[in-house]
Each structure stands twice: as structure tokens, then as C-alpha cells.
What we know:
five-stranded antiparallel beta sheet; 9% helix
Amino acid sequence: MKKTNLLLTFFVIIAIASCDNSKTENQFTLLSSNETGVDFINKLYEDNQINYFTYPYIYMGGGVSVGDINNDDLDDIFFTGNMTQNRLYLNKGDLKFDDITDYSGSGGDDRWYTGSTMVDINNDGLLDIYVSVAGLDGIKNNELYINNGDNTFTESAKDYGIDDIGNSVQATFFDYDKDGDLDLYVANYPITPFDAPRSYYFYKMQNTDDYETDNLYRNDGSSFTRVTEEAGLRTYGLTLSATIGDLNNDSYPDIYISNDFSSPDFMYMNNGDGTFSDVVKETTNQTSFYGMGVDIADFNNDSYLDYIQVDMDAKDNRRSKANMASMNPDLFWSTVNYGFHYQYMHNTLQLNRRIQGDKPFFSNISRLSGISSTDWSWGPLLADLDNDGWKDLFISNGIRREINHRDFFNDIKLRPMSSDSLLYYTEQMPSEAIANFTFQNNSDLTFTDVTESWGLDQKNFSNGATYADLDNDGDLELIVNNVDQEAQIYRNNSTNNFIKVKLKGSDQNLIGIDSRVFVKTPNNSQMQELTLSRGFQSSVSTYLNFGLGDESIIESVKVVWPNGNSEQLNNVDINTTIEFDINNSNKETLSDEKLNVYFENEQIVSHKHEENIYNDYVKEVLLPHENSKLGPGIATGDINGDGLDDFIVGGAKDQSTAFYFQNLNGSFSQRSFYFSNSHSRYEDMDMILKDFDSDGDLDLYIVSGGNEFEPNSPVLKDRVYVNDGLGNFIYSEGSVPNNFSSGMRVSSEDYDKDGDLDLFVGGRVVPGSYPLPADSFLLVNQSDKDEIKFVNADYSDFPFRDIGLVTSSVWVDYNDDGWKDLIVVGEWTPIKFFKNQDGKFTEDKSMIDEDSTRGWWYDVIAEDFDNDGDMDLVVGNLGNNYKYQATEDETFDIFYNDFDKNNSGDIVLSYYNNGEQFPLRGRQCSSEQIPAIKTKFQDYDAFSIATLEDVYGNSDLDNSLHYYTKTFSSIYLENTGNSFEMNKLPVLSQLSAINKILKRDIDKDGYVDIIVSGNMYNSEIETPRNDGSVGVFLKFDPESGFQAISTKESGLFLNGDVKDMEFINLKNNDYIISAKNNDLIEFTRIK
């Protein structure tokens, strides 16, 4: 049942709510227009003059705004129409509305109206309405409807100087210069051909016309002044939303601009002096490509603002392959190379990781969160829809006609089109309504799709959407503007507790826009910032609603006003509305207390790994990721015997291995050796500094690898460099056998107990033939005082060269028999245990359910983490924030076979969608590898419903080299004595691939902790790169296992494509040195 009116006393509310134990009602109920009186339809009237072919933006739809225009404490609704009259509905209570459009004078004329927002622009206590205008032609001046106080409005945009002439989508009000009044930002989308090249955007960004740029208008009292150029905001972008939020917690409002197509997004940080600086490439690793609407909110309750940006990636296999645009390499890399950032076609949920100086940093976690793919999306809204204290996510989506339907447009290319046939072809275009998406926040960075279970699964062509407590019962209704369908109002049926906060601001900002409100309860802390324009072409009301779940105590509610003043109320009653007045506030006392973090980055050495140019996809069209970009490795140790740690960093092909020697002052000097130039022909992977010949100094072993060489090439041979005791290395070609295998990692142990260190070298991949595994080798140390000598172990001792695509290994006596065993992990492999029995190895499958551990593992370490006397393991995997997902029942697979019988191996990747197994890649990509696919499947529609078996046939699939994965989660394996128990690492560890794990008791509590880092930037371009990690510090707790410490609490920040890490000591301080692919090395001090 619904909550009762706020005027009821507290005990009555509790009594009534406690009587209702029914769970039969959905979270939302769709109300009919007969019930509400809201019958608005954004009807499009297409003909030969106005249609998709003459105006491609015809289906962007209209917006919706809510606010109390007559001060009766009931939110009213304003819809915009593209080819129909705007409509204003007055809330009469009990979710019933009167259409007062004609009386109010707010219906507009024949302009193409898009977005709208309500705001009290003249500070008379009455909400006015600002309306944006676009369209193919005609008058494009935006409009401002001034509230006359009698439910009528007077259009006055020109009088205020804000009748912007651009092709406007939305506007937002905020106090950018903190002078107390509200300024205006107008988002404009200049009409641009869909097929405009990147060079066009680049040129227009340098040569932007006045009618093309977004605009900033400064409030000067009785009118506004355009200050776009002075503020540094003049630019060309296909802006679909402009959203305000203080992203770096400096009290100045910032702006996020979401741009369509290749035009880059802008994150404008407010400099506090009336100007802005775009920092999007410094603060994010990727953005959405077809950037649509944006909402900014703190969805994980850490008091840092995050944001959601939506795109048009389909969740459904059929729609993805039939309707959606694909990302081709030329388009992607031209976008990157023009400086437009890494843009991918999926939603991005950007988690605010830290604020360093004046800049935040965000990681996209949309894949992990489960919200990456919501079809043709327009308006995201982060709001607590079930009043449980955590912001949920509503996404409006739909396109009236399938303007990316591949078969349709391929067909009409072959037909002549005249101006009098445009309507005909428009009406032939396929059309499919789909449901909007709703996700419930699970409070652990993940969301659950509750569209159907919450009663929101009606199929629509939706655009603008907003939320408001229309019936004043403490929960948020949803209001949606649809194309060619009635607008929708969904009643919220929540029975959870709440607190509603209204603000009475200064005389020049009565609403209190840009204020922050904090609500603290015994089990939760929430923060909201008041900004009205949200999502797409829409705006919310002027109060803030906080869900409380079943909590009955509110410890405090605090407001921080834009001027820095604050007020706090303690022990506030639940299920009430409270109002803060700025006149009752006091100057906020800011704490200078800084967190006592564990780590801090320092600039020590400026050395960059420089990856050579090589295109893996020329030979391997459907390769999931480039195998030529897996380095470099790094090694640390006292090379020259002076008591100081030195380090070595591997080079890519054509880059020399770098040797750095530490000086007494903690600086480093680089040295070259006689072999440096000639050995740059190798691709350095892993390396290890150990005393192989037992002469008291550190020798060097380097694993050679890479994918750019021919199989069995001599440059795939590993190398040994002998230390002369003074830090001079001598290459010893005869020290290792002629194993021409592309390797990855090396680990050392005296496995045979003969007093010297032996090696295991993991083979990664046969170059050009993924996923064929390269041979792995156990190397027996037969060195003497005269030379270092490794030989391959006898097959009878180690019969396991074909282990898989090995990525890492660790030596550990897991069964406590006194002999060091070998554990090996890799890509597409289970975790493999090789038991050492007196120097001979057998595979041991008794320690774990091997099949359940099939993953993409990248590192493994061993330690007695729980101090129980046996050795546990931590294993780094791909993570759960990638396009590829796998479960026990729905695996992610690869098949390798010569499917088209052309004497060349073909790669087929598959995934599950709605219970069926499909090829991962689409018709175009698949046919580039096997051209016959285009013949077998004549069009995209046919391929879009074809299963894996339909495309490739059972016989060929059954005879293929076949690998599969069941988990991509990084894990902690606890040794229980006779087996290992698998536990997922905390969610912050799952944001990307873990390539390296270090162990040390960082907090000195007697339990060994771990530091993990990774990422994978070498993805094929239709798979957004795995870049969500900035490293994680995981403290071990004996009661609960590993606990992830947030970036802001730990100070650990290892952004980039980290491939290796090692500890190093400088001036009696311990550091971590990180090696990144095609990037600078990084030093991190352990404090």
C-alpha cells in the first residue's frame, strides 16, 4: 500500500505501514490517461518534406519537466512536442491533472521543441520554464516562459538575452561564478552529416560558428550576457546533454558535455575564476561513442559524484547484429588519433575513484555493474526508486524507426530515390518498440535488471524522462515522454521510509541550486546535489528525496549551501519533509585533516616503454586481443653490489632493454651494454635477477616473446646475461637450450634440491596462430663456476610442455611434503597443480574442481595468508568489467579450426545470450575471416538469429581445438589441508584484469596483504579495453578474508596498462615500481 500523507503523525504512519505485509503489488503501476488526465502524445507528422532522409534527427523526441508552478506543494508537469503543441498539466492531487496549456500560454508555436527545464529565473518565488528549440529549419530561438503567478506565462527569452539561436537540445541553470545568482548553459547540436569524417569535426572545432557552439550566459541581474569565449567554452560538439555537478569537491560546479558520434566529450572543470578547462582525457580512460544523456549522482554513497552516460549498445543478440552500428578499426583509430579520446559504443558508468589536487579520476565500471547495454538509450536517471537508501537507475530508450537497420539501408542503396518517394521509404523502414530499462542498486557497485519485476516493461519509443513525488507520499513517480505514444506516469508503490528535503536559498537563488545535502543514518550515509536538468531533455523538481529503507533513525541531515555556509539538524523524524533556510546557516568549517594513506606516487625516473607498430589483426582477423603488446617485465635487485637496489625494464621489439643503477642520493643512472642495440630485435617479456651460478652476484634471465615473429624464429629464444660481479653483464648464448617458443613468465626454485635455482618458463602463444599454445619448459640448472647452463628437464621428469597459454606460475609446497610443487595458470586454462615427488612431476587434480577454474588467469602468488600453517593462493583473472562474461552454465568459448578449408586456422569466439550460444562477432567481421558466411547468410537479419551451430556446423565445431571459460573473477584460494576453497576477491578487485600481484604486510598487523594491478589495453576495438583498474590494496582480515581499501583511503593509484610490478628500496624507503605497456614507469612510495 502507499504511504499516507506527510501530514499524518509519525506513529500513525508506522501503524498503517506495519499492517501491510502484502508483496503482491509491483514497485510501479502504469496509470492510464483516463486516470491521470495526462494524454500528451509527441506525435510526428512525416511527409515528403520532413522525414528521416531530410532531417535525420527527427526521432530524438521531446523532454519533460516537473515543478510546482503554483506553489500548492504539488508538482506539475510540462511536456515538449516536436511537431505538436507543448503541454502543461496542473497537478490537482491524487495523481490527477488538468491540462492548462491553452490558458497558460505555454504551448508554443510551430517550432521544433526539444528540452525544457523549470527554474525561478527572476527570483519571484514562481517557477518559470525555459524551452530549447531545434529543427530542420524555421525559427530556432529558444524560449523562456515567465510565470505570471496566475497559471499564465509570458514568453520573454529575448528580453533576458537568452533566446539562443543554436540547434538546442537542453539547457541547465547553475551559479558558475559563485556570485549568488543563476547562470545558464545551453547545449547545442549543430546539424551535421552522419557520415562526417573525423577531419570535419577537427576542422569545425577550430572554426566554430556562433550558431554551432554551446553557450554560457552570465546572469547580470535583469538580463544575461553571453560569455562563451571568455569562459573558454567555445567549441564544436554534437551535444546531447550538458549536466552540472561539483565533480572535484571544490564547491565550484563543473560541466559534463556528452557529444554524439566522434565529437569528443568535454569535462569542463570550473577554474574558479570564470573560466573552464576540459580535462576529460586526464580524468577518464574512455567515454561512450554515441554519447546521449548523462546523469551525475553519488550512486555508491561515498560522497563523491559519479556519472552515467548512455549510448546505443543492444543487450539482445538479434538487435545487436541486425540494427546497431559497428565500430570499424579505421573509424576508431582516426577518432583516437585526432585526439578525441578512446570512445566505445556502450554505456559508461564512471566511478569517481579519487580527487588529486583539483582533478577527479573516473573508472568506467558499466560491464561489472551490469548496465552497459540498454539498446538505443536516451535518458539515464540515478534516483532511489525503491527508497532503500541506494540510487537505482532508470534508462529511457527507443528509436521510432530503425535508422541503423543494415539490411534496409543496404537495400535502398540499390534503388533510386526521388523527393516524392521519401515518405514511402520512411514508412518502409523497420520499427520495433522495446521496454525502457530499470536497474536496482545492489549497494556493491552492481545493479540488477528489475524492469519486468517492477512493472516497467511496457514497450515504447521513449526519449525524455524524469522523476518526482507527484502524490507527496515520499517516493518518486516516473514520467516518460514517448514518440507517437501517450506519455506515461508510473505510480511508485514503495513502503520504505524516507526523508524529503526542501531548500530556501538566497534572494538570487531561491531554489538553492548547487547545494549539497547529506543524510546520515546508523547504517548508511547519502549525499545529493541539487541540479535540475538531468538525463535527456528533461528536468527534475526542486526538492531532494532520500530513501531510508527500514531504518527508523536519522542521525543527522546537513545542507552545505553554494556560498559555503552549512546547517545541520540532528535526530530528524523519518517520513517527513524538512526545510532548510540559508538565513539559518553558518560558515562551514572545513577540516584540514588528511587521510593517512598507505601509498603515494612520486616522480623518480622518466623512462617510457615504447611499443613497436604491429597489427596483429592482419593475420588473425578475429583475434580477441593483440598478443604483440603483452610486455614489459621488470626486475629489481642490487646488480653491482653497492648495497642499493637497481632495476631493469624490458623493451619492445626495436627498443633496448633498459638498465638503471641507483645512486647514493636515490636517483638513477642508465647504462648500456655492448649487446644493447643488437638485442633490441627481441621482444622482452618477463625477467628475473637471481644468482644462477652461485658466485654471489645477480645474473639476468629474460623471457623472449611476442606475436610479430614467425613461429620458431631465433628471436624467440630466451637469454641469459652473466654478471661479472661489478654489475657488468655478458651475454651467454649457450646458457639456454634452443627453445624457440614465445614465452610470457619465468619463475625460479631449487625444485630438485641440488643447491641451485631451476626455472619454469611458461609458453604464451604460437605467433600468428592464437589460441595454439607455445611450449613451456622446465629448465634444470647445471651451472658450475665457469658457466651458467640450463637444460630442458627430461620428459620423464616433466612431461607437460603443452600446458596451455601460460601467463604465470608459482612454486609452493602446497601439500607440505617438503618438495616445492608447481602451480601454473594461463588464458583459457584451469588452474593446474603439478605435484613434485622427489624431483618428478605429476598433475594433481585432487586439490580443486579443475573445470570450475577455467578462466583467463594472469598471475598467481602463494602465501600463508591466514597464518594457519599451510600455503594459500591468490590468482588474478580477467575481471568482471569486460565485454566477455562467463558463468558455470553459460561459458565463453573459443574454437580454432580451418573452417573454410583454405589451409589457415580460423578463430571463432562464442557467448550465450538468453540461453542460446551465438558467435560473438557480427556478419561483417566474421565474413572477413570466412567470406563464405556472406553467401550462407544473405543478409544481416538472417545472421542475427543464427546460432553458433547454424553458422559453423556441429561437425567442424566438434573437431576444433576448443577452450572455454567458466569464470573471469579473480580469486583467493584458501588451503583447507586437503583441497583449496575458492573465494572471489572483493568487487574493487574485479574492475579489470589483474596482471601482477605483490605481497607484503603493509599495515604491520601480522597478516600478509596484497597489492594488485593490471588492465588490458590491447583489446580488439569492438571490445572496449579493460581499463577500469587503478590498482587495489587488499588488507587481509583473519575473520573476513581480503578487504579492498578504496583509492582515496589507500592512496594507491596505478593507472595505465600495468604489466609488471616489483618492490624496490630507495634511500631506506620501500617503493613499488610499475612497468606499463607503451607508457612511463611509475614509482609508488609505501608510507
